[in-house]
Amino acid sequence: LKTMSLKTIKGSLDKLKAATIQDPLLFFSPTPAQHRFLSDDSRFKLLRGANQSGKTWSGIVESLGRLLGRHPFLKTPPPPVIGWVVCHSWEQSKAIQQKYHEMTPKHELHPDMEFIAGKGYRSTGSPTIRFKNGSILRIKTTQQSGGGRGTLGLASESCDFIHIDEPAPAHVMSELFGRVVRTRGTLFITMTPTIPMDFLKRMVDSGQCSETVAPLTVENVTPIGT
Q1: Burial class (CB in 10 A: 0-12, 13-18, 19+), 146
Q2: Residue 124's closest CA among 112, 142, 141, 109?
């Protein structure tokens, strides 16, 4: 550093910052709990943790890894694939879309995609994120909110995987599991337990769904190696 000028250092930092914005996935460093979840090759899996445990980011990295064919730890079906991210409401989905946009490599997005801060991805009908490789992520909600935009539409279209961010009512969860059973797809849940989830508990207890638990500890909020 002694032989480097401040201008050179600033230039290098600016390049690094630009790279992290263009391809955030390259710079994702998981915590131990995130690593366990992302390394789990179960078809049905659950990450249960506190609000600051990075659970939603884990689901986003899992989704993008499948959509782009660059999962950090697993061999996944080659793209193009179709995925769903299922949220409780339209308002919640806007926050999820913001996080997906922050983690998505911008050069991988389809050129027609437009993201509007505070509103999400601009699209006609159900919100979608489209990629250059043909993969599609559809944003769904379990409530009739936002004028019906992005509602679940369980009777339509098959998908290769489903990311559920926070659990839905038992009858909806059952439908979602059934959807990927028919396509031999994958379903993963990222959640903080706030309501009784007997349906999920039975699946975990019977071994049908694997579970990673991330209590709020220093270890579980510290990326591995930092």
Answers
A1: middle
A2: 112
